[in-house]
Amino acid sequence: MATVRRDERDPVGEQADTRPRPSDDTAMTSVADYYAGKNVLITGATGFMGKVLVEKLLRCCPQVRALFLLVRPKAGQSMQQRVDDMIKCKLFDRVREDDAHFHRKIVPISSELTEPGLAISPEDADKLAACVNIVFHCAATIRFDEPLKHAVQLNVIGTQQLLGLARRMRHLEAFIHISTAYANCNRKHIDEVIYPPPVEPRKLIESLEWMDDRIVQDITPRLIGNRPNTYTYTKALAEYVVQQEQDKLNIGIIRPSIVGASWQEPFPGWIDNFNGPSGVFIAAGKGILRTMRANNDAVADLIPVDVVINLTLAAGWYTAVHKPKTALVYNCTTGGINPFHWGEIEHHVMSSFKRNPLEQAFRRPNANITSNYLIYQYWILVSHKFPALLYDLVLRLTGQKPQMMRIFNRLHKAISLLEYFSSQDWEWNSENVNMLMAQLSPEDRKTFNFDVRQLNWPEYIENYCIGTKKYVLNEDMSDIPAARQHLRKLRNIRYTFNTVLVVFIWRVFIARSQMARNIWYFVVSLCFKFLSYFRASSTLTN
Ligand SMILES: CCCCCCCCCCCCCCCC(=O)SCCNC(=O)CCNC(=O)[C@H](O)C(C)(C)COP(=O)(O)OP(=O)(O)OC[C@H]1O[C@@H](n2cnc3c(N)ncnc32)[C@H](O)[C@@H]1OP(=O)(O)O
Ligand SMILES: NC(=O)C1=CN([C@@H]2O[C@H](COP(=O)(O)OP(=O)(O)OC[C@H]3O[C@@H](n4cnc5c(N)ncnc54)[C@H](OP(=O)(O)O)[C@@H]3O)[C@@H](O)[C@H]2O)C=CC1
């Protein structure tokens, strides 16, 4: 079994390791000083975490020489257009304030990670081989329903190819791979080690080459075994593939849990996608999602994106400067240090969206999570399907296209894929993370803060919800009074609807059936008796 030992930081007895060791001077450099004059290569820079990584490097390590971003053309946009759009976004406002010409440090390189040779031109590959000092590999498919072939192609073969390129880099000091804390979610306790892979990646890759898509689809459940999806399965394989290079490269592996909006930087609550909990929060805030399967008492292992990026940069520094003998794994999680539970998340998300409502909510936000399958199915029927049918009926009657049932079907698919992670909890060891924190200077501990003991969850969740409103939905905060007014209107509609329903039931059952009338009189007389008893006893005590 190939496992990763914790860094012993003992340079003695390393005959096999020919890589240069750090001098005392370099070991003492601060994180920002280390990145000064360095050429950094980043994959997945256009993604959620990649963008935050680029921003933080430019803002807090302003002496960095160049950032080479491997980007592919997409949706009719060239790679250059995509990078231009990316750096225009609000996330980069603080960097722009500090240095209006920061874009000069960004060098986009056209690359498609699923193509042979990463589809990098020979000239670009030579340039990278000659100058890159540190690689951050963030790119991956994070979809939970990705067909196995594609997930392997990108997450495993793409990683292998990048490692091949890294081996050619003459001045490479560190290779940092972003994995996930759920790569080994088939275990309950997860140490900072690389576990044996579920299958030898080479054998799997060879088999997938000749199998057609139908066969692959059929055998996927058997292959992934007790992992919930191809994403976690291929991320586990990728870790193993990265580990195979530990004799040749200085490697660090970061395993974040559920990455959420930023905690502090560049500003609280920054988020730009529907992945993971963000989509659930938005659907609940819009009043669409009323129930979800989750365990109230299970730890919700959210981790703010800026924490992950701070840890990643610090790990890059540590790996390059201290050159650990084996690849170090960092479990970047909150559960063991500052636990917060799904039940608490539900409470704070709901109250936050009541204070700061989203525009044009479908219903008042009121979602309840439950681990009980029957209760869940009941609420799906009563609170999702029935209102959707009713709404679509109204749309049809007014000559419009029905849409609510379609939205709910997509939502049900999304939440069914997430419930595996919200219905149970895991224990992650974080010794390497603690070790890394202890290695930082007090100044670096502030600039590259990943100490989640200081995280105030209610405040974080409030900023997260506001962040989904501002940055994902692009809603204006000045519209909050109108949104509150809309919620009041929805509440009045609900009261009216409930009253009409009661009157209707009364008319149909009470007024028309003798037996219902008898029951009704019995209930009313019981209430009267109770009231008179209550009055009499309170008169006596007075
Ligand atoms: C108050 C309650 C508290 C309890 C709260 C519990 C939260 C419990 C979170 C656990 C979270 C674990 C996270 C593991 C941690 C990793 O390791 S990381 C990677 C995380 N990866 C992901 O989250 C990817 C999951 N997403 C997917 O796989 C795909 O988006 C889906 C869900 C299969 C949908 O695929 P699709 O149908 O092809 O289409 P896509 O365009 O992607 O999205 C379709 C619709 O689904 C919606 N959608 C997408 N993602 C989501 C989502 N997460 N939620 C809702 N809707 C979504 C989109 O908004 C879109 O809606 P429309 O705009 O069309 O109306
Ligand atoms: N988000 C989360 O909750 C968590 C994420 N992680 C890990 O963090 C990393 C980053 O995740 P995140 O930022 O959320 O993911 P995103 O989906 O936001 O970003 C993925 C990035 O990978 C790039 N990419 C995808 N396919 C290719 C390809 N074929 N060729 C080149 N580039 C490609 C995307 O580029 P493009 O813009 O062109 O599509 C994008 O830049 C991943 O490795 C993920 O496994 C780990 C734990 C949790």
TrEMBL record:
<dbReference type="GO" id="GO:0035336">
    <property type="term" value="P:long-chain fatty-acyl-CoA metabolic process"/>
</dbReference>
<dbReference type="GO" id="GO:0102965">
    <property type="term" value="F:alcohol-forming long-chain fatty acyl-CoA reductase activity"/>
</dbReference>
<protein>
    <recommendedName>
        <fullName>Fatty acyl-CoA reductase</fullName>
        <ecNumber>1.2.1.84</ecNumber>
    </recommendedName>
</protein>
<keyword id="KW-0444">Lipid biosynthesis</keyword>
<dbReference type="GO" id="GO:0005778">
    <property type="term" value="C:peroxisomal membrane"/>
</dbReference>
<feature type="domain" description="Thioester reductase (TE)">
    <location>
        <begin position="42"/>
        <end position="311"/>
    </location>
</feature>
<dbReference type="InterPro" id="IPR013120">
    <property type="entry name" value="FAR_NAD-bd"/>
</dbReference>
<feature type="region of interest" description="Disordered">
    <location>
        <begin position="1"/>
        <end position="26"/>
    </location>
</feature>
<comment type="function">
    <text>Catalyzes the reduction of saturated and unsaturated C16 or C18 fatty acyl-CoA to fatty alcohols. It plays an essential role in the production of ether lipids/plasmalogens which synthesis requires fatty alcohols. In parallel, it is also required for wax monoesters production since fatty alcohols also constitute a substrate for their synthesis.</text>
</comment>
<dbReference type="GO" id="GO:0008610">
    <property type="term" value="P:lipid biosynthetic process"/>
</dbReference>
<dbReference type="Pfam" id="PF03015">
    <property type="entry name" value="Sterile"/>
</dbReference>
<feature type="compositionally biased region" description="Basic and acidic residues">
    <location>
        <begin position="1"/>
        <end position="24"/>
    </location>
</feature>
<keyword id="KW-0576">Peroxisome</keyword>
<keyword id="KW-0472">Membrane</keyword>
<keyword id="KW-0812">Transmembrane</keyword>
<feature type="transmembrane region" description="Helical">
    <location>
        <begin position="519"/>
        <end position="536"/>
    </location>
</feature>
<dbReference type="InterPro" id="IPR036291">
    <property type="entry name" value="NAD(P)-bd_dom_sf"/>
</dbReference>
<dbReference type="GO" id="GO:0080019">
    <property type="term" value="F:alcohol-forming very long-chain fatty acyl-CoA reductase activity"/>
</dbReference>
<comment type="similarity">
    <text>Belongs to the fatty acyl-CoA reductase family.</text>
</comment>
<keyword id="KW-0521">NADP</keyword>
<dbReference type="Pfam" id="PF07993">
    <property type="entry name" value="NAD_binding_4"/>
</dbReference>
<keyword id="KW-1133">Transmembrane helix</keyword>
<dbReference type="InterPro" id="IPR033640">
    <property type="entry name" value="FAR_C"/>
</dbReference>
<keyword id="KW-0560">Oxidoreductase</keyword>
<comment type="function">
    <text>Catalyzes the reduction of fatty acyl-CoA to fatty alcohols.</text>
</comment>
<feature type="transmembrane region" description="Helical">
    <location>
        <begin position="495"/>
        <end position="513"/>
    </location>
</feature>
<keyword id="KW-0443">Lipid metabolism</keyword>
<feature type="domain" description="Fatty acyl-CoA reductase C-terminal">
    <location>
        <begin position="384"/>
        <end position="475"/>
    </location>
</feature>
<dbReference type="InterPro" id="IPR026055">
    <property type="entry name" value="FAR"/>
</dbReference>
